[in-house]
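Aim 2, interim progress. The first record below pairs a target sequence with its structure tokens.
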Amino acid sequence: MQNPENISNPHQALYEDLFSKLNPLGKDEIDSASIAAFLRTAKDVNTAQLSQIWETACESSGFVNRGFLNKLGIFMCFKLVAAVQQGFQISPEILCNPSLESPRFEIASGYNFSTTNLLEISNQLISMSENQNFQLHTASDLIEALEKIPVNTSILTETRLGLSLNMFRKKVEDEKLAKRCRALIENWRSIVFEEEGRKKVLRENVLTTRAGRVKNKAVSQTKNFGFLCMYCKKPFTSKFNLKKTL
């Protein structure tokens, strides 16, 4: 039976490190938007290959059409990235190959994607917005780091990165840097909308299920009343009449 340890062998330490960077909040399951953002930092892997990697990992881990993956599925993504980088075809069989080298990602140096570091970046953006005495290359490096860091709604809410970055964008005089900030904000907004859309669908499904149960219960009660009325000597009009008749 496949498990994260078997998939990552003999590069388990690296896989665990990548997983901790992708999953700074320690969740059991990660949404597709966050995983996609992280996988896009893989070296020498194109968009079509990333889509195939996602589909193969979902099928192999049993998470088809669910919009998220667990640790096993994410480790499978890492293994398939390594396979592509080494010239192999994407297939479930390659997941059992222990001779593959470790996957390579263009992860921003100096950042481990932890919430603490993201809070520091958020505060630094606010400080630069207020003081406006920052070096352009320093700001550019900071934005480059944010462009490579996968985020989700929880991280954006906790760190308030969107507000900090938008505040910084309004103060930036360099048009290219401001444009990169704007694009990053739009990307984060789409991630939030996608997650909220999935939550809305789940809520609607729950409400529909509950409504169906209530309806079935009402139908069942109506049938029971009809059954009782069949044995009443008088027409059933109220609980009092029913008791009196019986």
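The second target in this work package is listed in the same format:
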Amino acid sequence: SCEFNNQSSWTYVEQKIYNSEVIVYYDFNQKKYIGNYPWTTATVDKWNEQSEQNYQEAIAICENNVEIFDRGVLTRLVKPRVTIRPKQSAHTGHLLTCYVRGFYPKEIEVTWRRNGHVVNGDQVSTSLMANGDWTYQIHKVLQYSPESGDHYSCHVHHKSLDSDIDHPWVPEGMPESERIRIIVGALGFAFGFVVLLAGVILRLRNAKAILDASGTGPRLMGAATA
């Protein structure tokens, strides 16, 4: 795709995305593909064997579409769509990912907020990704510690919006691991109480049996007879 600022300023953009991450991209200024991971090296080297041909094709694509783009794309505004998904694992802990998709132009601000305040640190953004339809997407990941009563929201500022989006997500109560720990603790306490009560009852019965056998236990006095 092409990123146009005006008819005299544009840049060819091509990205290969896997699992929401840019693994290979085309650097128009350097006239070559660049891989972000070692396992892409062989493919990138093969593509770069036709470096000049790739460069000329990029120029042709953008120059042929610049007038159409200037009339129909540069002036349009497309509002972003926002969704939030939670994730939990032993390695990463608790994560919230804010997916912001389908917006134009590409300039955008995305921040996580807790109880109305911007969360400092613990936020990671993916690179801005082109969708291939003149719109973009970006993901913002937050690592957090769930606490009862906390309210999280993904705050989005974009030129297309009349007012900023503040998309809420509220933790669904206590974490599952914490609930299990409390349930196990409660069951253990109940079991211990039952065992203790049974022991007390058995001890009292044994004591009564010993007293009855020795004849020293308490006796009721009958009424006197004439």
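Residues 2-73 form a domain with the Class II Histocompatibility Antigen, M Beta Chain; Chain B, domain 1 fold (CATH 3.10.320). This observation will shape the mutagenesis plan for the next reporting period.
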